[in-house]
Batch of 2 targets.
Target 1
Amino acid sequence: MEHVKAIRRFTVRPVLPDTLRPLADLAHNLRWSWHEPTRALFDSLEPPGPAAPSGTDPVRILGALEAPRLAALAADQDFLARLRAAAEDLDTYLHAPRWYQRTEGSAAGRPAALAYFSPEFGVTAALPQYSGGLGILAGDHLKAASDLGVPLIGVGLLYRHGYFRQSLGRDGWQQEQYPVLDPGELPVTLLREADGAPARITLALPGGRSLHAHLWIARVGRVPLLMLDSDVEENAPGERSVTDRLYGGGSEHRLLQEMLLGIGGVRAVRTYTRLTGTPEPEVFHTNEGHAGFLGLERIRELQGEGLDFDSALETVRAGTVFTTHTPVPAGIDRFDRSLVARHLGEDGALPGVDTGRVLALGDETPLGGEPGVFNMAAMGLRLAQRANGVSTLHGAVSRAMFAGLWPGFDADEVPITSITNGVHAPTWVAPEVGELGPEPTDRELWELRRTLRERLVTDVRQRLRASWRQRGAAAAELGWTDSVLDPDVLTIGFARRVPSYKRLTLMLRDKDRLRALLLHPERPVQLVVAGKAHPADDGGKRLVQELVRFADDPRVRHRIVFLPDYGMAMARGLYPGCDVWLNNPLRPLEACGTSGMKAALNGCLNLSVLDGWWDEWFEPDFGWAIPTADGAAADDEDRRDDLEAAALYELIERQVAPRFYERGPDGVPAGWTAMVRRTLGDLGPKVLADRMVREYVERLYVPAATARRALTPDRARELATWKARVREAWPKVTVDHVEVGDDLADELADAELGATPVVRVRVALGALAPDDVEVQAVTGRVDADDTLADTRAVPLKPAGGPDLEGRQPYAGTFELDRTGTFGCTVRVRPSHPLLAHPAELGLVALPEETTGEGAGVLLR
């Protein structure tokens, strides 16, 4: 029967003998994806032949085992011993105390559970639920949390088509395929009620419709990852397709995805904790704005417990962490306000929650945005008491980008901190690198680098042949692929998504110069390039096509290759096999950029623009910094790219290649291996996801849990009432009179280093009391316009009772401990013990003259 489709699909699983039952447990805990002994155990079950293109996939491997093979394994004592060892090791890993449990004071101060929401998770190629760096970062976050014993619950969606598979047409144009993913063939299990029925969550939609979802669980070591799936029979066709594709569909489709992730995700967590007895999360972490609606659902829950909107908002904020990953407004999800109102109103998912208040949370007009638009990042920041960017530079960029949400404060005082991303070493480090001794010799390092490079060359040739066959080439045409790349040639890697700011084709700016580098007679270079453009991004697809056409040129195709369908399986061989990792984004548009971290963990040196994490940790011993254009040159796109491409060629030609090919009498490039050694020993520990997750725990999760515990219902009401009172009274708060030291009354007077001038000020507080505010003297350097910079603040104390006009006197001193031209002013800010940051309300009062042209008193 040709072309007849099945009306139902199901998976037939083998019945495992009792002695082999642990295989099922091992296959359904994704720890195998970073635990080499377990991977090796499953790989040994594969029949001889070429490896599967997706790498190890234990569920697929088990599903393919025939009865005779199972019987042979059940009688194989050596295999059974290895299986028992792997099962015992997993049991110990899952239940023994780890860092989080062993740390002093953990039981009292640390949250019993946390929820981590992300629109995508890149845990393994066998569970393709990611598109790029955001998902890989989320997967590494879960793995590191598991290794450390941090009690996370991951929350995401199960996309039935995942992200797209990429191939190339004959002309080099990107083509997309969306293979159907059957949960029965994935390392996930369905969450069921006590009676065996699938657990289900439901969202009400406008017009009396409903959106239902089942919950699948992926076990990521100790961390459960809950994945909501709308492909259930109870849904109408439109709702059934909500979780069809990652980042697919139009605006309403995306809104429904984000409602299911945020609102449905909270309900999924409640269902999971009810059925498993797991503690309720004390802290909710929103990985980007896509999951931001989770805060609204928690407000709805608290209103059902008797809190008003404002008190519920304060309670939610106290226990919420928001991480932003975008350095540009264009990267933020935005929806039409009327669309949001219709879906979240009385006829939608959040009945009883004031729609006007909800819309105000997403208002982007303070950021210079449009009044008719709902901004998910603005809502995420307003719903979280703690927020962070993902590198030091990105933190600064984020504070400037979102400063409008905290009017009256300079960008450097905006309450957005930074925690630099990290990567999960056991996932990304080649086993041979992990087996290096503590003090490897130069020869050992060099031989390791060649082994990894040779393995990459073999993999590239296989992938390139497969790609050309997909493009329509006959096998007889592809003999040339046997000599593509050379295991003894300097190998540069470049692989990532293909938005325009990552500049995939900067290397092609001067094609003749690039050819000369590739074909240099003594110091040749070879390039391995990969990357996916978003299906809707024709500009990105044109960049891919331009690169592919250059790489198709018979003159250079043995030295440069483009590999389609970049993903985790490819990356695991690409990072270790490259000598240099190239990254040339437009600065400062790379929030962090973790691919270079994964390369560094394998002894690959970085060649990058000073952006993201590289701006923070670059040292000449770790690699090279590509100079970036500034001034007028940076404003002219063509000139900027010409200059930065020329700088890239110059670095490769004059520094990178000579260092690689300068060999000693023993044939080893000692200068190169010295850089590899420093990269592994000094840079490696900084880029670890373990370090990142520890920072989240100590700097954000524990303070958030502490704040949430402190906010009892009564204190939440008190805080909400206090904030409303302060906002209403603030227009009457003024700084009326400032005096700074008698000897500094003359603006031309010089001050001596070490002097401690007295500051006196009178402040009108209106309806507020002194306990409601903090009065500060602020000093700093001044520029030609008398604008303060590099400021320091000193608190001033009440100095007696109010004067006849009701103004409160304050006084204090500050130390002149730096030379140069300085200024001083005074400011008043709200103060309350439950505020996480003084700028939280965005309210500040300054002397009238400092809001105009002057900066207060000058100190020379």
Target 2
Amino acid sequence: MPVVDLKSHLAAAMRLFRVPADNPDLTRAQFDAFSKQIPLLYFILMSNTIAVAYTYLNVAPDWLTMIVPSVLTVLAALRTFWWLRQRHLVRSDADILRNLRATNWMTLPIGAGFTAWSFALFPYGDPFAKSQVAFYMAVTAIGCIFSLMHLRSAALIVTLVVDVPYVLFFWATGEPTLKAIAINNLLVSGAMVTVLVIYYRDFADLVASRKSLLAQQAATQALSDENFRLANLDSLTELPNRRRFFAELSSAFTDAERRNVRVAVGIIDLDGFKPINDNYGHSVGDRVLIEAGRRIREVCEGFGPQRVEFARLGGDEFGLVVCGDPDDADLLRLGQRIGDQVKLPYQLDTAHTGLSCSIGFALFPQSATTAEALYECADYSLYHAKRHLRGRTVIFSSELEAEIRSRGVIENLLRTADFSTEMDLVFQPIVDAMSEHTAGFEVLARWHSSRLGLVSPADFIPAAERIGLIRPLTQALLVRALAAAKTWPDHIRLSFNLSAHDVCAAEGILPLISIIEKSGLPPHRIDFEITETAVTFDFVRAQQSIATLKAMGCGISLDDFGTGYSSLSHVHRLPLDKIKIDRSFVADINDNPVSHKIIKSLTGLCDDMEIACVVEGVETRAQLDTLRRLGCDFIQGYYFAKPMPGDAIGDYLANEGQRLGGAGAKVVA
């Protein structure tokens, strides 16, 4: 055999007697398994040693039967006690390796000590006692080897230190029985070493496979955790998403219910966000959302002593769950802080944008008894804030609860209403500001419910939009309005209001076009009024619908001008014929310099863009005179007439002709 092969085999053999230091997982597994069997190993040593010492008590010297066994037994007992105390300690890899190596070193003197003591006793016994020594050494060695099987190096040391001298010693006696025992023990020892090597290899493989399995489980768990995080995270703002919000709400509500404390739900809507998307593009809009979310999150994180969970619900809407027994004052303070931060300027490249936000809160247990109902109450508070207190914080109250009940009644009755019999039309004149001749009539709907009586359009129009009835209602009213307008003089125009759902829904205006064509009324006598809110609902689709109506010859008016967002942008991008200035600027035009300047600016804008200007809400002669001086084209208001039924229009026009002294005069708007 070449020298190099001999050296490699010797090195491999020496590795069998060392504790491996390059595999911490295997070393730790060895230590855990081995430490559980150490007490059993020492129990075997102590019990067998005491039994042999007792047998030789009267035939061997006291130092062999009393002193040496006592020393060996005490040593084994101390080691047992030490291991029992150490088994629950959390050890480092270096500490484990050090203990295993120490066990290797201690195995050699302990094994040699028990072997030498056994050989020293052997000559003093009779054949039976000598056989007991042979039996003691064989059985004890086998028990120790199996107890040390997880620490292969220690088990092999015991085999060499005990079994090899054992075989040589008893073979040298020349006694056939003892020689047979020696041969038998040699064969058993060989088999045990074979089993030990195979078992250790399998144990090492098991540890490796367990490590691999744990690694796979860790990777699976990490992937699961990441999937859970992504499933509960808004990808744009990296805030918790709608799913996470409702999970937090459910948990917080259950906890508040159990502890009998308050918990609040808040919903935030950014006022004026949609025009940012329309005017600057979605990339700018996304950055505004990210920045707004960051600001609100900072407020929530710094709001104590309450804990505030914050999430993006979708679009420009965010949700809050306020824990920690908040009261109304806490919620108003939180809403104020959020509003102040959202209002700060957003400087994004060349676009300098500004926002505000409306917030609705609902508080458990005052507002609702379930998490779902609490959220609905907060949503209605937000709805109320956006309609009546835009940019403010509203907390759900008994008054809003009454509104909800009333709204529910209106919606239910509207579903079963007969539009042909319960809906009436009234008409309000639109008058030429200079000649004071009527140029047209705006048609207004009135609902006479059999149960509720007269219901305001401010209540039933939004209800029809919510429940999806606005389009059939619009179509039914347009048919009747066109039929009425057909009986008027040819120079009198009809002004008809369209909702966001009429101009922004897919194929929304196709039924309207069909109705116009069937009516026989020339399209050039029809003005469709569209609010800024309807335009901002979906500007692109609204722009397409308006262009189609304009192509038919219909006029387009932008209603409630000055009360929405990005008005100048809409004026510039839409094919408008008229702008209607909201009545809120007219009421104090002669007393408030600001209102006067606003209307002056708007009339100048309309003049420059060659768009007619219609002013609503005129009630006094002084207001009319001022508006004339400012250059307004058309006037609408109670000064001339309140809305009237269709059958009163003939008398109204006749009286106007007599009053102005020129019944045949025609003014084309």
